Every structure is written in C-alpha cells, then in structure tokens.
Amino acid sequence: MRRSPAHVGARALTALGAMALVLLLALSNVTAPLDDALFDLMAGSGKRTGSSQLVVVTIDPESLAQHGPWPWPRRDLARLVDQLSAAGTRAVGLQLLLAQDSLYDPQGDALLAQAMTRNGAVVLPVIADLSDGTQAATALLPAQVLIDAAAALGHTDAVADDRGIARRIALHAGLGSPQWPAFALALRDVTSSRASRDSLRAARARGRAAPRLDIAASDDHWVRADTVLVASPRITSDIVHVTAASVLSGQVGASLLGGRIAIIGRTDLPAEQRLSLPGAPNSLPLVDFQANALARLLEDRAIWPMPIGPQVLLSVILVTLPLLLLGLPGLRRLWAPMGVAMTLVLLVSWTLLLAGAWFPPFPALVVLAVGLAIGTASAWRRIRQRSFTDLATGVANRLCFDARLESDTRRARRNGQPLSLLLVEARGAASQAPGSESLATTLAAGLRLRAQRPRDLVARLDAVRFAALLPGTAPHVAAALATALMVDLEARLGQPRPGITVQAVRMGLASLKAEDSRGTDLLLRATRDLVTMRDPTAR
C-alpha cells in the first residue's frame, strides 16, 4: 500500500501523541479506580477453593459480653488456642495486639506460650504503626515469651488505596529491610511445613531471600517488598465465621474446625480501624482482610502487578496498532481497527491475569476511545462539510448558501450592519458548451479571489449561477468589488475557448434594505438586477 510522506508523517505525529497520553495516564493513576474495579470483577470470578480451608474466630460483641471487655486475660486466649488445637485445626493465626507482658497475670503469658507450643503452628502479628507521617515508623512486636513460642511472625500491613480499599499486600516488609513475611504468607508456610520449628524458620529465611524492594530502605522507614494484588473480598464473605465464645463453650468443635486454618481477630473495632469494600466504606475488619489474603495465597492466586515500564511499553504497542491496521482490506473504516485494538487490550489483560500478572488496560482503552472519538468527529465534520460543498468547484453549495443567507440577514438587521449579495451567471450557449465546467471553475476562482474576508461566502447556486455573500460590506464597496471582478473575468475569459466568449457571463448586485425582512428578499432583488443588467464584459 503506497502512502505519501505527509500521510506517514501525520500517522507518526498521531502515534507520538498517543504515546504521550498513555504515559500521562499510567503515571498519574487517573484511571486507577477503573482498573481496580475491573480487576475486582475479573479476579473475583471463578471457583474459590481457599475459603473452604479457613475459619475466622471473631472476638465480637457477643463474646465480649460473655467473657468481659478487651483485653482478655491471656489464660483465656490460651484456652481458646487449646480448644482450636483439640478440634484439629492445621494452624492458628492470632491477629491480636499482644505487645507487652501481662502486668496482672504473668502466669497467663506462660499458659498462652505453653498452649502455642503444644499447637506448634501459631503465627503472631507484627503490627506496623504508620499513622503519623511526621514521625518514624515503628513495629509493635509480641511479648518475648510469646515470640519464643510462636512458629512464625508475620506483618499485618495492608496496602490500601486513597479510598481505603486494600487490594495489595507486601509479601515481605519491615523496618529498614523487609525482614518479616506477610501474616497470611507466614500462615500458609506454617501450614505447609509443620515438620519442625527449625524447618519453619528455614522456610521463612528462604522466603525472605532477595526480596524485591518497593521503596529505598531506611532504618526508620517501613519498607515493603514483593507487593502482590489480591482480589477484594465480597461484602458477603464465603469464609466460615464463628465466635470465640462458641469455641470456648464447646458449641463449635471438630466437625466445623477440623482441618482448617483458624484466624482469631476482633470485629468490634471502630470504623476508622477498618478497611473498605467497593461500595461499602469502613466495612471490612482487618481479620477478614487477612483471611481473604490467605485464601488467595492458598489458591496460588496472588497476582503480580506489571511494572510501570513494561506496562507503558505494552500500552503503547496496543494504541499504535490501529495506525498500522487502518487501510488494510476490511479495516478501511476507523472503527474496525479501533475495535480490534480495544478487544485485544482486554484479551491481553485477561490472559496475563490468568498467567498471574496484572496489566491495567484502561490507560490504553482511554487513549483508543479518545482516538476513536476524535476520528469519528473528524469524519462527521468531513461528511458535513461535503454536504455543504460543491464538489466540482470546492465552494459552498446551495444548501449552505440558503442557511447562511438567512442567518446573516437576521444578524445584519439586528446589529444594523450592511449586507451585500453579488450574483454571477454563465449565460446562453456558454453554460452548455463543452468547457462549461471549466467556466464554472473560473467563476468560482474569481469570486474567491475577491471575497476573502472571514465572513464572506462564495457559493454555487446551480449549474450556471454563483453568489458571493458579503456581510459587513457597504453598497459602494460591493460595487467596487464587482468592478474588480469584471476586470478579472475579462482577463480570464479573454483566452479563446470553444463555445465561450467574453460575453459569456453577467452579474447582479443588491444590498440589504430596511424593507428586506428575509434573506430571500435580498436574493430576489439581486436576481432582478442580474436579469436586467447588461453584460459586465461587454465592450
């Protein structure tokens, strides 16, 4: 397919503009809410098997009413862990702040540590305090006696967006270096390897080997590494929930708890200490987020977000594809290659998601939509312009002239400005001669040469008649313009042509008067002047 240099240059400039817009959208995260919503829809579909392996043991208002306000004596927590162990749980995660030794019940710490040791697969949280950006970050660790009895430690940091919706977790994080695995990751690793405490520690050390840092390390900064996406849980969770009171009383036993991973956490926290679900602000307790993250890890459905560089490169390739396809057989209309490219963007995003990576498609989709809108608008303007243009001469046609005549007449009457109309007609045999189209082109060119102001309009009224509508032109100025046009036509028509002589045209001129209420009145007077006026080129 042959293309002119100007054609290729125009497409190259279009491609550069598309690249710049893709880069702007990707770096500014303007389309992030749309990408996140699409990720929730796509990643949340399909069969979920991880949820059936979990149970959330909630310390809820009912449990607090039966066993007293929080914090509970740690001997009660020891009893809760023993009950879960007796029911045959595979592992236990204590999503609770246990940062200090018990002041009033030192024996309770020992009892809880003993219960954790008997279970052999209890994970304790490392809670990051990132609330005040003016101060250094801190990490709240459990009491040392509990750390010694725990199978693993895991950080509970949830990476939430500006709306408080958490879709990301850092698989490793810590102060200065990503030294702790995520709470959900630690539970998964503990569950999969309960052989010995030494093997668990070795597994955690291997999991922390060479993590990918998300920010530069600093001793007083909370550093995240290996951040992955997890689908946001539904408002109605499919993970089994039981109350701590029902477990302590023995109402819930092995039939429901056996073979599951139990996560213990509070659900009585205030709204500001909760995360949000799409469309449900401050509705998700932190323990439910950890349970959802663990379920996705058990299913091996943690999704790696595509780095910004490859994301932009892939988006650029996809948005410039229509420029290469446009004009090929079957793709000559703009919507066809644009539709192919948009479909391909969604297909690539879905394919990569199935492969465990997330490509946000909306920067590319928005650029393609903008290109389609601009192309459609340009095509509509061309069609509209063509409908108001005489294709043989390139000037306006009768439809355009009639609309402009009425609007300019109303404007001139309203503002008290002059308006003149000049008619030129090919007469007699000249209009039927073989060179009549050449004569029409000559008349159009002559009128366009003299009517060059922004509001002037040159139009072809029919096969032999042309008009020049001159807003703001006084009668004496219009008469001078007609005289100049007469000279031009004498020079242009002076060359001998078959069937065309210098007496081939005539003119009519009229200016708006007070009694002209409509544009047709002005056209009628100009037509009468055309009929009665002598040939302008007569010698």
The DSSP helix count reads 18
Q: What can be said about the biggest beta sheet?
A: 7 strands, mixed
- Helix and strand content put the structural class at alpha/beta
Question: Per DSSP, what share of the residues sits in E-state strands of 2 or more residues?
Answer: 15-25%
pLDDT averaged residue by residue: 82
C-alpha-based Rg, rounded: 40 Å
Report the helical percentage. 40-55%
- Secondary structure: number of strands: 19
Low-confidence stretches: 195-218, 429-435, 496-502, 534-539
Our measurement of the CA-to-CA distance between the termini, rounded to an integer number of angstroms, reads 55 Å
Shape: rod-shaped
Supply database-style keywords.
single chain, 539 residues, alpha/beta, seven-stranded mixed sheet, disordered C terminus
What does this structure look like?
The chain is an alpha/beta fold and 539 residues long. The chain is built from 18 helices and 19 strands. The chain has helices spanning 5-28, 32-43, 61-67, 74-86, 106-119, 144-149, 183-192, 197-207, 244-248, 254-257, 286-298, 308-325, 335-354, 362-387, 398-415, 436-450, 475-493, 519-532, and strands spanning 54-59, 91-95, 122-129, 138-140, 152-155, 159-160, 166-175, 180-181, 222-229, 240-243, 261-266, 275-277, 280-284, 304-305, 357-358, 419-426, 457-460, 465-471, 505-511. Strands 1, 2, 3, 4, 5, 10 and 11 form a seven-stranded mixed β-sheet that branches. Strands 6, 7, 8 and 9 form a four-stranded antiparallel β-sheet that branches. A four-stranded antiparallel β-sheet has the order 17-18-16-19, sandwiched between helices. Helix 12 runs antiparallel to helix 13. It is rod-shaped, with a radius of gyration of 40 Å. Residues 195-218, 429-435, 496-502 and 534-539 have low confidence and may be disordered.
